[in-house]
Amino acid sequence: MITNVIALPGLDRVKNNRGWFLLLGILLILVGWVAIGEAFFMTVFSMRILGWLMVFSGAAGAIHAWTKERGWGGFFFDLVTGILYVVGGFLILSNPTATAVVLTLLIAFLLIFEGLFRIIAAISVRAPNWGWTILHGFISLALGIMIWQRWPVAGLWVIGLFVGISLIFNGWSLVMLSMAVKHLPAHGAVPAKDRDS
């Protein structure tokens, strides 16, 4: 018997459109698998998107600074920042493969340092379930070392692989959401005990 019910705003709309959430989730999963299979293409594609985003955002920032901020003390800083974004974006677009190789090395070092930090912090603090934090740290550390050992070749596929994995997990979350809302009571209500578990 359900005694406590928590209302979640907008959940009725999700329930009424659960088929679209399911379809989008399946589509993201399929695209994710394609991205993993074509990791090099996805890596270069991601770098091109990053480059164009930097160009457009930098141009917008520079134009805004030139037209709206000329009387303000931070005008020059904002203008130069926008120009640097544009230049950086065009550098990425001119050689997306080299950019991916450099970013992959940064990802490897970030994973290594994150893993070491998590392990040291977990051993030092020993919070509840600290064993899981140590496991997370060792996985991050191992991934970072594996990428570093395979660098620079890893730079041609690691980012595309990560994008593919992210798409798959996003897709599964939408699939699970569409299945979960099917069994909810009317008016977007969720049993409190189900939400806590």
Care to give the gist of this entry?
The protein is mainly alpha-helical and 197 residues long. The protein has 8 helices and 2 strands.
Bin the helical content: over 70%
Strand content: under 5%
Task: Estimate the mean pLDDT confidence.
Answer: 80
Detail the poorly predicted runs.
1-6
List the total number of helices: 8
Rg: 23 Å
Number of domains: 1
What kind of assembly state do the chains in view correspond to? single chain
- Straight-line distance between termini: 16 Å
**Strand order across the biggest sheet?**
1-2
Q: How many runs of DSSP E, i.e. beta strands? A: 2
Give helix and strand order, one letter per element, not per position. EHHHHHHHEH
Blueprint of the fold:
Blueprint: E1 5-7, H1 11-16, H2 18-37, H3 39-68, H4 75-94, H5 96-125, H6 130-149, H7 158-181, E2 189-191, H8 192-196
Antiparallel strand pairs: 1-2
Explain what you see:
It is a single chain. The protein is mainly α and 197 residues long. It has one domain. The protein is 79% helix and 3% strand. It contains eight helices and two strands. The chain has a two-stranded antiparallel sheet with strand order 1-2. Helix 3 (39-68) crosses helix 7 and helix 5 runs antiparallel to helix 6 (130-149). The longest helix has 30 residues, at 39-68. The chain is extended, with a radius of gyration of 23 Å. The two termini are 16 Å apart. 22% of the residues are buried. Residues 1-6 have low confidence and may be disordered.
Keywords:
197 residues, mainly alpha, two-stranded antiparallel sheet, 8 helices, extended, disordered N terminus
